Amino acid sequence: PPVDDHDALKKKKNAPSHTTTQVPPFRTDDATGLSYASKCCIPTSWTPLSLLKRRKVNYNTEIFTFALPEGNSKLMLPVCGCLLMRAPDCEHGGGDAVRPYTPVSSSNFENGFEIMLKLYEEWGDKRHLHSYCPPGAVSNHVFGLKVGDSVDFKHIAANVKIPYYHTDGSPPGFKGANRLTLIAVGVGIAPMIQVLHEVLDNNEDDTTEVVLLYGNRTVDDILMADLLNRWERDYASRFRVIHHIGSRYQNVLMHFDDCPKDCGKPCKRRKFPDPVNFDQIPVEKRERGWISEETIAKHGFPADDPTHRVMVCGLPNVYRTICGPRGTKDLAPGSALANLGFTKEQVVKF
Fold first, then answer.
1. 239-245, strands of its sheet edge to edge
2. How close are the terminal C-alpha atoms of the chain, in Å?
3. pLDDT given for residue 36 in this prediction
4. pLDDT tens-digit map of 56-111
5. How many whole angstroms separate alpha carbon 119 and alpha carbon 122?
6. 163 preceded by cis ω (within 30°)?
7. Residue 228: how many CB atoms within 10 A of its CB?
8. For an engineered disulfide with 303, which of 206, 252, 297, 341 has Cβ 3.0 to 4.6 Å away?
9. Do residues 107 and 79 lie in contact, with contact meaning Cβ atoms separated by under 8 Å?
10. Which of 48, 141, 14, 136 is nearest to 87 (CA)?
């Protein structure tokens, strides 16, 4: 899931840091009295887990490895499930900050789990909220930790959107889908990494074809590039990545003084330069600009296969453009996926 939602923080400055719907527990441990929402070994109550190590991914992103609760060797989190992380007294406006994070480690990862965090720094002017973003409440807290420090985690039923498969007769997961179109921006790549671990590395009988449309502001912002490149080499007939390199300034380029009134937005006459290092990405694997209806139609799979699943993860504007708000299951009329003929049953919003 997207982390440190700045738009939401501006709208909900005085709201509680997190609210959940009460759901009956998946199981309760008679010895400890702890409840669990799935097979995940982290209970539904806050549990402190130690930071084991951290490593850099790029200039503002790191992967943090945390210990498991005592007596467990694997996390056992359903694929695409997430965990809630708590940063005490760090929420904007007061109180604890709580954010969802999807591990990027495989379900086969032993003796810990990995969370990828981007450090969100404050930028803009507080006097103009439309262009101001506060520092990331949880990310800044975690980036300040040392190995051996602990962070509180829990896992609740609402943290599972669509698993790889169910064994209890519940509605099917995405195992058996003929095709997957994954749409991610920035750290929204995390749940897609979970999907790819499962359909590519962990299940030899899976033949699903997958295309990942991955958006970032710069080439240097691309995350997990080595792993994505390895998967493209090892599964060349089934997996491909189309990188979209955009800019928040792309659509506000100034017009020339003599531009006609119908010149368009951005200016049709003013050509902005390619992003730095854009030429390092093969031509057939890149698009300049953000993921759009046009690039989904060009590179994604069509909507005519009912088993086809489209998975989306990014910040709020990504959902508004691609499929409609994250908090609703419906596809918004006029959104890219609605216009391309997809149904709400085919779309998963992380």
1. 286-288, 239-245, 209-216, 179-185, 309-313, 347-349
2. 5
3. 93
4. 999 999 999 999 999 999 999 998 899 999 999 999 889 999 999 999 999 999 99
5. 10
6. no
7. 21
8. 341
9. yes
10. 141
* Nearest Cα to Cα of residue 287 among 328, 243, 329, 319: 243
Q: Indicate the pLDDT class of residue 264, thresholds 50, 70 and 90.
A: confident
Cβ-based burial of 250 (10 A; exposed 0-12, middle 13-18, buried ≥19): middle
Please name the amino acid found at residue 215.
G
Which tokens go with 350? 């992380």
Tokens 């100034």, located at residue: 254
Residue 290, both tokens: 């953000």
State the residue for tokens 């602990």. 150
Q: How far is CA 143 from CA 16, 158, 165, 326, in A?
A: 23, 26, 34, 27
* DSSP bridge partners of 310: 181, 347
229-241 pLDDT per residue, tens: 999 999 999 999 9
Could you give phi then psi for residue 233, rounded to 5 degrees?
Answer: -70, -45
Q: Which residue is it, tokens 């694929």?
A: 79
